[in-house]
Write a structure and sequence with these properties.
The chain has a single domain (5-145), classed as PH-domain like. By secondary structure, it is an alpha+beta fold. The strands form two sheets. Strands 1-2-3-4-5 form a five-stranded antiparallel β-sheet. A three-stranded antiparallel β-sheet has the order 6-7-8. The radius of gyration is 16 Å and the shape is globular. It has helices spanning 5-13, 22-29, 127-145, and strands spanning 18-20, 39-45, 48-53, 56-63, 69-76, 80-86, 95-102, 114-121. It has three helices and eight strands. Strand 2 (39-45) and strand 3 form a beta hairpin.
Length: 148
């Protein structure tokens, strides 16, 4: 469910993401999808975006005064191995999700590099559903990596 531009701007100034429709994300970011890949869920933070596809997470970072320069980062879903959730409390707290993923191409190599990324969401967004998706993914990935 899209919150609309007013809520995107309010959430953006507070430093957190607001959900955006798949149609809007396809229109703006469809050219970055791989063959056969589809957007399942997405969020915006003023000009930046966090896009969930059936294969990866795509994070965009528009830069400069005009926003024409943009950095695009992809994290393969199969590399996500841990997720932490912090729900909003009373007052001005926002919800947070932090996920950890393997950065090295070979998941079982002797030298494995990890990275974490924290996402902030407005108080009114039910972060538990996104946590559940990421946690199930992390659990399945850990099973596969460890041949369990």
């Amino acid at each position: 469910m899209a919150f609309g531009i007013k809520n995107i701007l309010q959430g953006g100034f507070a430093g957190n993401y607001s959900e955006v429709s798949v149609e809007e994300l396809n229109k703006e970011f469809g050219m970055y999808l791989m063959e056969g890949e589809s957007i399942t869920l997405g969020f915006k933070l003023v000009r930046d975006a966090l896009i969930f596809t059936d294969k990866r997470l795509i994070m965009t970072d528009k830069q400069g005064a005009t926003g024409t320069k943009m950095s695009v980062t992809s994290i393969n879903l199969f590399s996500i191995i841990d997720v932490k959730m912090e729900t909003s409390g009373f007052g001005f707290d926002d919800s947070e999700l932090t996920f950890t993923y393997i950065r090295t191409p070979e998941l079982k190599g002797h030298h494995v590099e990890y990275a974490s990324h924290k996402l902030e969401f407005p108080k009114k967004y039910n972060v538990q559903s996104l946590y559940k998706i990421l946690q199930e993914l992390a659990y399945e990935n850990c099973l596969k990596i460890n041949n369990l």
